[in-house]
Specification:
Length: 232
């Protein structure tokens, strides 16, 4: 576990990224994309789990342009209020630029085999979907991304595996939006969608209030298989 610095592509400075290394290398790299709560304990625990699968894991601080090193939980109204404020202030286009820079940096890490993908949750799930459309990542995995139906116009640009985990009872992503994404994905063989009918938003958040063990285990197993197939 360490913190590395990554240069922003627009010359605005550099940002922190949390790094966890696997026991054995060379290995593929996974850029883990945060929720609206920053690089918090849940993300750090998730990073450790992904590293245990045999991958280098890099978790960039995407809110650094607003506030550095945000570390919130989903346990208090005050933290939720701050998290939503950060999300509203977040510039997604610049965030995608920072993720592309992180992806490039991950590929050059000592011990990386040159392959790298993304996996994100909530806000990060939306960004992972966007990275599938806009970057050269070898695989992208989206957990309960919000507003994905607004991104399907570019789904034809996805040429590498994209795995989309959808919470059937997601309070932030209504059924009609889910249906549009599922239908659009049918036209692209590199996109796979999975619906977890009894799960709420953030069902795989480690220690989260909406944790659903069955859905999380099934989704994480599918994610592990996708990462191994694409990254080695």
């Amino acid at each position: 576990m360490a913190t590395i610095q990554i240069a922003a592509p627009d010359g605005a400075g550099s940002f922190d990224a949390y790094l966890v290394e696997p026991k054995n290398k060379p290995a593929g790299a996974v850029v883990l994309i945060q929720e609206i709560f920053g690089v918090n304990q849940s993300m750090r625990e998730t990073a450790a789990q992904v590293a245990d699968l045999g991958f280098l894991v890099v978790v960039p601080d995407l809110f650094w342009r607003i506030e550095r090193n945000v570390d919130l939980t989903d346990k208090t109204p005050e933290e939720w209020q701050k998290a939503f404020a950060l999300m509203q202030a977040f510039d997604a286009a610049k965030g995608i630029g920072d993720l592309k820079a992180t992806l490039a940096a991950a590929r050059k890490l000592p011990g990386c085999n040159g392959r790298a993908g993304t996996m994100g949750y909530c806000l990060g799930g939306r960004l992972a979907f966007m990275m599938a459309e806009q970057s050269d990542a070898d695989v992208n995995i989206s957990y309960y991304g919000v507003g994905l139906d607004g991104l399907i116009g570019d789904i034809g640009k996805v040429t590498k595996p994209l795995l989309v985990h959808i919470a059937g009872k997601d309070e932030y992503f209504p059924p009609e939006g889910q249906a549009k994404v599922i239908e659009a994905a049918k036209g692209n063989k590199t996109v796979a969608t999975h619906v977890y009918p009894n799960a709420n938003h953030a069902f795989a958040r480690v220690g989260g209030v909406h944790w659903d063990g069955r859905s999380a285990w099934i989704a994480n197993g599918r994610s592990a298989e996708a990462l191994v197939a694409a990254l080695g």
